[in-house]
Structures are given as C-alpha cells and as structure tokens.
From TrEMBL:
The keyword NADP applies. Pfam families: LuxC. This is Acyl-CoA reductase (LuxC). It comes from Caballeronia glebae. Keywords: NADP. GO terms for molecular function: acyl-CoA dehydrogenase activity. One of its GO terms (biological process) is bioluminescence.
Length: 487
C-alpha cells in the first residue's frame, strides 16, 4: 500500500519533495512528508514589509473570500477534505462518525454573520480597518490600531475544527501564519490550505498561510525557526510537557500565547431532584457534557459535584441519577459521542477495581469499554480523577455547593451548572478560585469563538496594538515648557 503524503504548503506553494516517513500518533498510520529541515529558510516571512499586501484588503474582501472558501469546503465534493477525513479516521483520537461529523460542519465556521460577530466581539472591526481616534482629558489625540503579526500556531489535534479556527483568526487579523500540523491531525489544515490555493492561488490570504509537519521537540529545527526575526508570536495548544518545552524559546520579541491543558467539571444543584422531569433533563445535559467528542476535549465534564445530599436518601438519589446519566450517554447521537476508539487499559483497571469496593463506589457500565459513571458514596472524587477519559465520569455527592470550591483551581476550564439559578449564585465566586468558563449544563462542547478562551482574549493577543499620540503645545501641556523647580 502506498503511504499517504502530507505535503508542506508555503504561501501558495505545495511541496512534495525530499520526503521522509513519519508516524501519526498512536501508531495507526505512517505517512510521508517533506523533511522540514530542508525548507526552514523558506518557512518564515523574514521581511515584515511583505505583510503590506494584506492591507490592500478591507473586511468585506475578507468576508467575500471566506464565503467563497465555505462553498468549497463541502465534504461531498472536496477531494482534499475527503482524503483528510479518511486518513483522520486512523490518526484522530475520536471515532469515524465523530470525525466525519466535524468535517461536515467545517464550512459553517465561515458564515459571514458568524465571522462578523466573532471579530466585533473579540477585537472590534474598526481597529482592524484603520486608526481609531479619541481625545484624552489632557487634550492629546490618541489613535489606536490592531495590526497583524508573524505567528506560529502549534495546533491541537483533538478536534478537527481547530485548524480552520486558526486559519480564520489569521485571515481576519491580516497575519502571516505558520501552522505546525499535529501528529493526531496532520491532514486537516493541509486540506484547507490546498483548497485555498486551488480557489485563489495569488490572493493575499492564500499567500500568507503555511502548513508543515515536523516532529515536536526537534530542537535543532526549532532553535532556528523560533526566533524573533522569524516570528513574533507563538500560539500553542497542547499538553503540559509540550507547552513546557516551548517556553524555552521565549525571549524578548517572541511572545507565547498559551492555550494550555485544562480540566473541566460540572455542578448539579439540588433543584435537579425536585421532580422526575428535572432529573431527566439534568441527566441528558450532563451526559452530553461527558460524552461530547468522547471526552477528549478540555471542555468535557469529568468530576461532577451533585447536591444530592450525603445521607442514605441522598446517596440513593445520586445512584439513580447516575443510572440516568449513563443511559442518556449511551443514547447520544454518533456525531457527538460513541463507544471510545480504544478504552484506556489503565483507566479500565482502575474502574474495575472499584467494583470490588461497592460500599464506597457504585460503578455503572464500563464492562465493555463503552464508558462508565462512577458514583462515589463519600463526598470526595476517586483517586484517579485526573485520568478520567473515554466517557468515564465520577459523580460526587455533596450537601452544599460551598463544598465544590475546593475542587476548582487554575487548571479548571469549563464548569457546566444546572439549573440556571445555581449558576447565578456561583458565577461571581467560581472565577475567584480559578474557573475560566461557566456554561449552562449540556453546552460545554458548544464553544463560542466570540468569547474569551482560557481566561484570556487570544484574538486580541494575536494582534499588535499600536498607538499614535498627536499633541501640540496648543492642545496638550508640553514637557519642555514645565516650570523649573527651585532647589
């Protein structure tokens, strides 16, 4: 069987020479790709003045380009996407139905109204279109504008849309992007880039996108590329070790925008037990937050604090609720969740061991590697809570929502809460402990790119915010006209 090729794309040029063999994450696929060492001098945009062609475009031009690209990102007709989708069945941590559903939905990220709203809420379109003026109280006229930058993107591969989100952010900011394709999704960004080349090979937006694969941690390669004369910002998604590795290259003139690993949790208020209907609703919502993307995203629920009470009646409520959550999870649509691709054997060993401790834990499901719900019979999570994955969640009973705060820290990204009244009571408290995103239960995976991310505003950080002060002695007190001080 001929090995697939993942080309290098450098600003409109598709390169398939100097091939070497590499392996996707998990060992399910070997593919060929050009040796990035041979092209390291071509990858960076060394002359910043070459960004100027992006400023011949206005925002409407960018929207027109995105709309035209959306028409071509149709999985049914795009051969690049079709090939990338088939190959991603092997490399992705998600199962084929989830992967295919993600590819089918890519084009919707390029909707004109969505892009307009995203840019307006995260940056402000007027700051990208020109200098925004205001007069300060001392009479100085201040102009501010957001410029694009030369950026390296180390993209995560646990969700297909992240490559297109990265490309879209680059487009609207008028930046030059080098995307380091991840080993568990080496084909998506390439498929989009090749579609752009076929559509508009000489367009400035096409000419400011490069995609390449190289093995992470290749210090000989990275020391040469990760330099301020080559790139100004690194946007890095990934695990702790990967991000720790990148920090060694940060220096004056090279900024790191870190979208680092997080854990997420859920909180179920006592109102969920007011009626059978409320319990069913909370169970379905929670099942969605656990099962989405087979729990591979940072946004997915893992430890769930349930205000069921910790007495005998409370534990009975918790266990009945856990059964409903499990049943709802098994019934989720296969575009959202399925039985895991391969259930982690170490995790399964932990889960199976708990079955022997049924006085302290009730384990629902998991015998066939389909995922499980673990109901703690004490108000504390399982010892391996940081390793929960593959649709395996731990429900922890509590008497009061105040008990939840000790489990929230700087690693906590998303907290899904039910009902809304509980969220209203907690939304001003949880951020003090470290929570970064608060959502209605069931919507954890419905990421809103119009919002901040990981408690920062990455779109604003990716731009360069430049000010121009306009002052004269007639409008603003001149420093050189200050009165001397008697000594």
């Amino acid at each position: 069987m001929t090995k697939p090729i993942a080309p290098i794309v450098i600003r409109g040029e598709v390169i398939t020479d100097n091939l070497i063999e590499v392996g996707g994450r998990g060992g399910d696929l070997a593919f060929a790709t050009p040796d990035a060492h041979q092209y390291i001098d071509k990858l960076p945009l060394r002359d910043p003045s070459r960004l100027a062609d992006l400023y011949t475009l206005d925002f409407a031009d960018i929207l027109d380009y995105a709309s035209a690209l959306a028409e071509r990102l149709d999985l049914a007709t795009n051969p690049y996407l079709q090939e990338a989708c088939e190959l991603s069945y092997l490399t992705s941590p998600a199962t084929p139905s989830i992967v295919k559903g993600s590819y089918m939905g890519l084009r919707h990220l390029l909707d004109r109204d969505f892009i307009t709203e995203m840019v307006e809420t995260t940056v402000g379109i007027r700051y990208l279109e020109g200098w925004v003026k205001e007069r300060l109280i001392d009479g100085t006229e201040l102009e501010t504008r957001c410029f694009g930058s030369r950026t390296l993107h180390i993209v995560a591969g646990n969700a297909v849309p992240l490559s297109l989100v990265t490309i879209l952010r680059n487009m609207v900011l008028r930046s030059d992007a080098i995307i380091k394709a991840p080993s568990n999704d080496p084909f998506t960004a390439l498929a989009i880039a090749r579609t752009m080349i076929d559509m508009a090979p000489d367009h400035p937006l096409t000419k400011h996108l490069s995609v390449a694969y190289w093995k992470g941690g290749d210090q000989a390669f990275e020391r040469r590329l990760y330099q301020p004369q080559n790139i100004e910002k690194i946007v890095a998604w990934g695990g702790f070790a990967a991000l720790k590795h990148v920090t060694q290259y940060i220096q004056p003139g090279l900024e790191l925008i870190s979208l680092d690993p997080k854990r997420s949790a859920s909180i179920i208020g006592k109102e969920a037990f007011n009626s059978d209907e409320a319990m069913r609703e909370a169970a379905v919502r929670l099942a969605s937050d656990i099962g989405a993307l087979n729990q591979k995203g940072c946004v997915c629920a893992r430890v769930v604090y349930v205000q069921s009470g910790t007495d005998e009646a409370g534990l009975d409520r918790l266990n009945r609720f856990g059964r409903q959550v499990y049943d709802a999870m098994i019934g989720l649509p296969n575009s959202l969740s399925t039985a895991p691709k391969r259930y982690d054997p170490a995790l399964k060993a932990h889960v199976d061991a708990l079955r022997l401790e049924d006085e302290w834990y009730k384990v629902i499901g998991g015998k066939d590697g389909e995922g499980a719900v673990i109901c703690s019979q004490l108000p504390e999570p399982v010892s391996f809570s940081a390793s929960l994955d593959d649709r395996t969640a731990n429900l922890v009973p509590v008497d009061s929502l105040d008990e939840v705060m000790g489990a929230v820290d700087a690693y906590t990204q998303t907290v899904g809460i039910y009902p809304e009244s509980a969220k209203e009571a907690l939304k001003d408290i949880l951020p003090l402990f470290g929570a970064q995103r608060i959502v209605s239960l069931g919507y954890a995976a419905a990421m809103k790119w119009q919002a901040p991310q990981d408690a920062i505003e990455p779109m604003r950080r990716m731009g360069k915010w430049i000010s121009n002060q306009i002052a004269s002695p007639e409008t603003t007190q001149a420093p050189w006209l200050r009165r001397p001080i008697d000594m």
